[in-house]
Amino acid sequence: MNTKKFLKYAGLITLLILLTGVAIVRFDTPFAATFTDNYLRPIFGNKAVGLLEKSYYNTADKIQQITDKTGLGSTPQFLNPGIQSSISPIPITTGLPYVAGEGIWHDRPLKLFPGKEVMAYTFVRPDPTRPFAYVTLVQMDMSLMNLVAVAGTKQPGGPIGNFGPGIIPQNAVQSGNLVAGFDGGFQYRDGTYGMVVGDKTYVPLENNVGTLVGYTDGTLKIINYTGQNLGNNIAFIRQNCPILVQNGQVFALNELNKKLWGRTFNADIFTWRSGIGLTAQGNLIYAVGNNLSPSSLAQALKMAGATNAIQLDINPFWVRFNIFEPNGTGGYKTSTLTKDLKDGSKAYLSGYSKDFFYVIKKS
User: Fold this and answer.
1) Please, are residues 356 and 181 in contact by the beta-carbon 8 Å criterion?
2) DSSP per residue over 30-72, as a string?
3) Using DSSP, how many helices (H) and how many strands (E) does the chain show?
4) N or C: the chain end with fewer CB closer than 10 Å?
5) What is the pTM of this model?
């Protein structure tokens, strides 16, 4: 075969693979996620595949901007209606058309806490140019619960030989006290952000990165890590991207941070994103939503009352939030918070390749 023919066929094969990749990104299935990570990235590299993802998500976002001016038909569908919470509503100042329930916290009753309000949810739209971009917010009273980090069987430390358990420990499962589970941070290839659990360092800490620290007494803090002493009795540390909110101020707008968002163009993609924040009272805020940039995710967390916050994972297949309810027979009834979130409960209970967090009632 001459050089001209070879280049022609090589180009056609490359185009076919890339078009297949577009279709895979579009349908966002477990196969899509694993195919992208295991085949497309090794062949074409992170940059090419990242640009492919950016092209798809941002094109879809632009079309939605043109065709959906109100976003009134896209409100999150919560699987448990709950009742209105005692938490003060979030002031909505975006100027978007009113959507019933926006900013109104609803109590999510839990069997483990009869008569107590420990988990509440609502939604906001932080981006006035995207009325269809909804951020679901969960607020948890951490005076009654502990947050625990679990390193995945492959991520984030697997690429450097530090594999994690990837599973909620049996003693925690058998206690009957599981409350929730949700996604962790980026894979190693998308940002070599640190993770430490107990005495095990899965990925060394980096400076100038948003950092969540959990202590053995249940205390949590989120900081911009610059090498400072984090103290004693550390239960876990997880870093991910530049800090979103620090001391009540949104920092995601700082263009100097752009190079730290894993692959640099991750900051430019309008896609599903999740994040975690802490209020001044120590409550934990989990945020997840569609068509978000780091800035709009940060704004949603700040609206919810987070004084410090970092991003967790991104893209539709990787963001997830599950609620665990003991079923009285030693197991759990599990559910996602909303209908459009992926179910991660089986993976958390049986083994998951990526890191995650779970929440458990204090004993």
Assistant:
1) yes
2) HHHHHHIIIIIHHHHHHHHHHHHHHHHHHHHHHHHHHH-SS-T
3) 6, 19
4) C
5) 0.88
Beta strands in 125-183 (DSSP E): 135-140, 145-150, 178-183
CB-CB contact of 335 with 281 (8 Å): no
- DSSP, collapsed to helix, strand or coil, labels residue 316 as coil
| 72 in any annotated domain | no
**Half-sphere exposure of residue 117: CA atoms within 13 angstroms, side-chain side:** 13
Residue 198, judged by CB atoms within 10 A of its CB (0-12, 13-18, 19+), counts as exposed
The span from the first CA to the last CA of the chain, in angstroms, equals 71
Q: Residue 47 belongs to what domain range?
A: 3-67
pLDDT by residue for the chain (363 residues), tens only, comes to 555 554 554 554 454 444 454 444 444 555 555 666 665 666 666 666 666 677 777 777 788 878 888 888 788 999 877 789 999 999 999 999 889 999 999 999 999 999 999 999 999 999 999 999 999 999 999 999 999 999 999 999 999 999 999 999 999 999 999 999 999 999 998 889 999 999 999 999 999 999 999 999 999 999 999 999 999 999 999 999 999 999 999 987 655 455 444 444 455 788 999 999 999 999 999 999 999 999 999 999 999 999 999 999 998 889 999 999 999 888 999 999 999 999 999 999 999 999 999 999 998
Distance CA 106, CA 92 (A): 16
How many domains would you assign to the chain? Answer: 2
Q: Does residue 263 sit in the same domain as residue 299?
A: yes
Per the document, the length of the chain is 363
> How many C-beta atoms lie closer than 10 Å to residue 22's C-beta?
14
Same domain, 87 and 63: no
